[in-house]
Amino acid sequence: MTSEWPITPLGELTDNFDAQRAPVKGSDRRSGPYPYYGASGIVDHVDSYVFDGDYLLIAEDGENLRTLKTPIAFMATGKFWVNNHAHIVRGNARADTRFLMYALQVADVSAYLSGSTMPKLTQGNLNKVALPEPPLSTQGAIAHILGTLDDKIELNRKMNQTLEAMARAIFKSWFVDFDPVRAKSEGRDPGLPRDLASLFPDSFEDSELGEIPKGWRVGTIDEEFNLTMGQSPPGETYNDTGEGLPFFQGCTDFGFRFPERRVYCSAPTRFAEKGDTLVSVRAPVGDINMAVERCCVGRGVAAVRHKTGARSYTYYSMRLQEDVFARFEAEGTVFGSIGKKDFHGLTCVTPTEEVVAVYERIVGAFDERIQTNEEQTRTLASLRDALLPQLLSGAVRVKDVGKAVEAVP
Q1: Among residues 23, 251, 282, 285, which is most buried (max CB within 10 A)?
Q2: Domain limits, CATH 3.90.220.20, in the chain
Q3: pTM for the structure as a whole
Q4: In what helix (H) or strand (E) does residue 372 lie, and over which residues does it extend?
Q5: What is 7-132's CATH number, 3.90.220.20, 3.20.20.140, 1.10.3720.10, 3.20.20.80?
Q6: Residue 261 per-residue DSSP state
Q7: What are phi and psi for residue 290, nearest 5 degrees?
Q8: CB atoms within 10 A of CB 31
Q9: Coil, strand, or helix at residue 153?
Q10: Crossing angle for the helix pair 97-106 and 136-175, nearest 10 degrees?
Q11: How confident is the model over 66-117, as pLDDT tens digits?
Q12: Chain-wide mean pLDDT for the chain?
């Protein structure tokens, strides 16, 4: 990356705290509230800390130094512990620490790595990594702009996690623990609006799965859901130019909730419709995503939808099967998988369609917000990634983009 700013070795811009690192074997760790960091982020939580403040952690070793699937430099804030797989630095009087994090995200560190089998970034080579050095005030402004985008992304991530946790809690309460039915059977207020509470029975009956609400029944995935097992088209029909439909063939394509688009297929054979739940049926079995649009599914993915069309109910029903999917994963001789017959035969408690419809109305609103947040997050990430090299090179000025970024909702 060319830059109009002076180029300076990282060692001249930082104070290094590697001498204070203290690795702790897993067997010797005691669980606690403090993050325990390694080369790629938090690996555990422990009961004590070594550092307190804002520091920049930089991977010292690991294949990620070559693949760069996750950032090799990231901030650690507050009280935390670090093992000996991450360097610990902080900007000195010439450098803003968060600016250095962003600068390292676009720096080419390949020339500074040693080790043919396992790449390593020694402290000596780390200090040689060349980075642009704008004036300190400009560094702070750049870090603020990019940090504003990252903060919005993080807020969306936390909001989505909260919304999904709420949806899963309601599902568990209604369809696993049967809390409204249990409350009514014991003469207690179920804590629901009267019209909603009336949809739940007030007693239980025995079933092959144990006690279930009276009037509900035990069914199978085949009886309650439409299931499409994926089938991979010929390899020559795939492309990355946008011809045909997005194609997904396994959980490596999956994101937090919606899959990441990696390839297209010009001759699709098996389809998932927008809102279908996508289930990984080959190792690892049981990873869950949701189709954000009509797409093609390969042999590693199945598309599922409740026969009433309830997309959110389907998604959380498949989440409920995670332990069952894990069994198929563990039983695989070479790699885990679940076939159509076994998938169709999985048992499930079947509530009335009225209860499913109410759940869909309530939780569907959560899922719509999750999708909106996820789409905004991808837009923000694209904007950040586009601005990052431009700001660091000086090709784009802070004053030209600062107000626009602040105005992003």
Answers
A1: 285
A2: 7-132, 162-368
A3: 0.85
A4: helix 353-393
A5: 3.90.220.20
A6: P
A7: -130, 135
A8: 10
A9: helix
A10: 80
A11: 888 889 999 999 999 999 999 999 999 999 999 999 999 999 999 999 987 8
A12: 92
